[in-house]
Each structure stands twice: as C-alpha cells, then as structure tokens.
From TrEMBL:
It is found in: Secreted, Extracellular space, Extracellular matrix. Its main location: secreted. Keywords: Disulfide bond, Extracellular matrix, Glycoprotein, Leucine-rich repeat, Proteoglycan, Repeat, Secreted, Signal. May be involved in collagen fiber assembly. This is Biglycan. Residues 1-19 form the signal peptide. Homodimer. Forms a ternary complex with MFAP2 and ELN.
Length: 372
C-alpha cells in the first residue's frame, strides 16, 4: 500500500526550496520577499536537480527510532530548535534531510558534528553563537543545498563549503572580508544573502566571486560607499539597500546587464550619472527610495522592460513630461504598473497627465504626503 505523505511536509519542503532571503521567523515560516520571484534552483544554477525539492518517493524512514533527546523527529525532518543546546546533538538519523538547530547556544561546529549525514538537504543554524567552524565540519554533507547560518558570531565565510550548495544565508554576522577563492568550486550556487555584516568595499578581494554564477545577491545593511565592481555578471537580482552609497557613476553597473531587479533604497544617493542605467536593458524593477535625489534619473524611458520604479522619500522637485515614458508609441515593451513618488517636494498639480502615458492604470502612480 503506497505511503501517504502529510501535507505539512510537502508544504514545508516547497517553502524551503522557494524562499527568498529576508528575516526568517521560524523553521517553517520563511518570509517571502515581495515582488519578482527568484528563479528556481534548476533554472538559475544549472544544478542537476529536479525542482530543488527532495524526491518524496525516496522519503522512506529507515532509522525512525533514532532521535536526539528533546528533539522532534518525523520522517527525515529533525527539529532541535529552542532547546538551549551548546553543541550539535548526537544520534541524528543518517537519513535526515532537514535539520533544524536554530535558536540555540551552539558556539562551534566541530569536525565530526555532521558525520554520516550524507543525505542532508537543508541545515538551519540561525541565531546561535557560532564563531568557529572546523575546516572539515561540512565535509560529510555531499548533498547539502541550503545552509542558513545567519545571526551568529562569524568573522569569515566558512571554509570548504559543500560543492552541492545552492543557497547560502549568512547575514547578520561579523564578516568584514570576503577573500579570493572562498567560493571556489561552488558551481551550483545561485543565491547568497550576506547583508547585515560590517562589509566595506575594500573588504571584497579582487576575484572573491570568481566562478560563481549567482542569480541573487543581497549585501544590504553593510558599510558600502559604492556599487561593488567585481560581482558575478550572471546576477538577476542585486540588493544593496541600507548602505552608504552616495552616487552611481557611469560604469558602476557596466557588468550587470542581466539584472531584473536592482535595490538601492535607503542609501545617500544624490547623483546618478547620465547613461549609467543604459547598461541594464532587462531591468524590470528599480528601487531608489529613501535617498537624496533631486530629480528623476535620466534614462528611464530607454528601459523597455521597466515596470516598477520606487522614488519616494527623495528631494525631487520636478517631474518632466518625458522622465518616464519614451517619445512615440511602440517603443516600450512593458508598461509601468508601479511608480512611487510620494514624500517628495514635487508640486504635483504641475505634472502633466501625459507624463504617465505608458502606465497601465492611474492607481499605479503614488503621489503626495510630503512633509518638510
């Protein structure tokens, strides 16, 4: 008689494979980032997986009697969160695929902590006190695709990450440097979330991202003063919000021609040099809110696929009739469905209706609410 798999397990595995980086509130509650979805693992990385979700037909519990004290074990899911653990527990079933160790007091990952866990697909170590990782700690994890090790005390990227890794979330640590070669051999990686670290532009060694074919990268809430020059050319999404970037110069975006979404909100940007956006022909969404811009950036009408522009909470005083839409019909391939201009000192009654001739609906335009 075929085994019936509980709906909660199927849903949790799907959530784990599709979640986008941001704040993780619980093992089964991965907060989805709003807007465009990330490509799935197979599309973005070329990894030899099906959908990124473990094969449910292979989920046959063969070590069901093994479960660490205090943990909850069901099928191949082992939950040991919020137990005050000082170390990775022993007696973890060798066929475990999802291991949750978040919200504990683990300070070190030792050489044999994950010994025998050759089938592990996802490892959650969020919100511990990890400051030291043995160079062979991850060696047994030959099938690991998801490593969530955010909110710890790490000062460097862990060494010898599994070559099978697809997604790394290491935000909110104490990392100041990304050396060359730290990601070598990770040809399946498509997503890195490393915001909330005290990273400056000088902290990225030349060639630090060599060999990576990333789809998604977030370096928000760091100490960047400019757009990093040496990130992977394959990026579809780049998030640099909540930094100290003051300007976008002509060639800052030159190598990022495949971007769909660019996040530059909550910086100190006063100037975007003419022509700098022309290197982003496939851009669909641009976040420039909460900066110090005094005008709408030039070049927006030439971005034929651009659909969403966030410009609220700047110092924009004027909106021209051709600031957003190209002259003539048939030039733009996708109409805008979102333009935010609220909280700018714009005399909105002076903005001509034709300014938004390439917007799908007038409700897509957000004006008003400016306070000095």
């Amino acid at each position: 008689m075929p085994t019936m798999w509980p709906l909660w397990l199927v849903a949790s595995l799907l959530a784990l494979s599709q979640a986008l980086p941001f704040e993780q509130k619980g093992f089964w509650d991965f907060t989805l980032d709003d807007g465009l979805p990330m490509l799935n693992d197979e599309e973005a990385s070329g990894a030899e997986t099906t959908s990124g979700v473990p094969d449910l037909d292979a989920l046959t519990p063969t070590y069901s009697a093994m479960c660490p004290f205090g943990c909850h074990c069901h099928l191949r899911v082992v939950q040991c969160s919020d137990l005050g653990l000082k170390a990775v527990p022993k007696e973890i079933s060798p066929d475990t695929m999802l291991l949750d160790l978040q919200n504990n007091d683990i300070s070190e990952l030792r050489a044999d902590d994950f010994k025998g866990l050759h089938h592990l697909y996802a490892l959650v170590l969020v919100n511990n006190k990890i400051s030291k990782i043995h160079e062979k700690a991850f060696s047994p994890l030959r099938k690991l695709q998801k490593l969530y090790i955010s909110k710890n005390h790490l000062v460097e990227i862990p060494p010898n990450l599994p070559s099978s890794l697809v997604e790394l979330r290491i935000h909110d640590n104490r990392i100041r440097k990304v050396p060359k070669g730290v990601f070598s051999g990770l040809r399946n990686m498509n997503c890195i979330e490393m915001g909330g670290n005290p990273l400056e532009n000088s902290g990225f060694e030349p060639g630090a991202f060599d060999g990576l074919k990333l789809n998604y990268l977030r370096i928000s809430e760091a100490k960047l003063t400019g757009v990093p020059k040496d990130l992977p050319e394959t990026l579809n999404e780049l998030h640099l919000d909540h930094n100290k970037i003051q300007a976008i110069e002509l060639e800052d975006l030159l190598r990022y021609s495949k971007l769909y979404r660019l996040g530059l909100g909550h910086n100190q940007i006063r100037m975007i040099e003419n022509g700098s956006l022309s290197f982003l022909p496939t851009l669909r969404e641009l976040h420039l809110d909460n900066n110090k811009l005094s005008r709408v950036p030039s070049g927006l009408p030439d971005l034929k696929l651009l659909q969403v522009v966030y410009l609220h909470t700047n110092n924009i005083t004027k909106v021209g009739v051709n600031d957003f839409c190209p002259v003539g019909f048939g030039v733009k391939r996708a109409y805008y469905n979102g333009i935010s201009l609220f909280n700018n000192p714009v005399p909105y009654w002076e903005v001509q209706p034709a300014t938004f001739r390439c917007v799908t609906d007038r409700l897509a335009i957000q004006f008003g609410n400016y306070k000095k």
